[in-house]
Amino acid sequence: MALDSVQFKALVKKVLHSLDLDSRGAVNLILGTAAQESRFGTYLVQRGGGPATGIFQIEPATFRYLQEKYSQKYPEIAGRKTEEMEWDLRLSIIMCRLKYLSIPEKLPAFNDLNEMADYWKKYYNTPLGRGAASEFVGNYNRYVGFV
Fold this sequence. Notes:
Blueprint: H1 5-18, H2 24-38, H3 60-70, H4 89-101, H5 113-125, H6 133-144
Helix pairs in contact: 1-2, 1-4, 2-5, 2-6, 5-6
C-alpha cells in the first residue's frame, strides 16, 4: 500500500523547511525517489534480500557516510541506525535529502521530470544500478502525479 501523495508531499516540505534545505526541486526529486525506490512506501526493506531500507531504499554504507559527513551540522542524525528508516519517515527524508546534498551538481529543475529522472539515475541509482530513468518517470506519474 502506497502513501497518500498529498500528505507525503506536505511532510517532505515540512521536514526540509525545518532543516533549511527546502526547494521545489528538492521536494519533487525526493517524491520521485520514493516513487521509484519503494513504490511510494509499498516496500520498506529491499526486495530480494538486499541491505537497503526505508522508503528511499538507502543502504547502510550510504547511511553511515552521510552520518559521518553531516552529523555536526544536523545532530539529529547522529547515533541513529539504518533500520530506523523502516519506520521513521522524518529520518528517511533527511537522509535522502542529504544524499542529494552531497552531490556537487545542482538539483534539476523542479518542473522537468526527465531531468529529475536522469539526475536520480546518475547520482542515486548510479549508472551500474538496475533502475532506469524511464521507470522513474513512470513511477513518478503513477504515485506522485504532479510536478
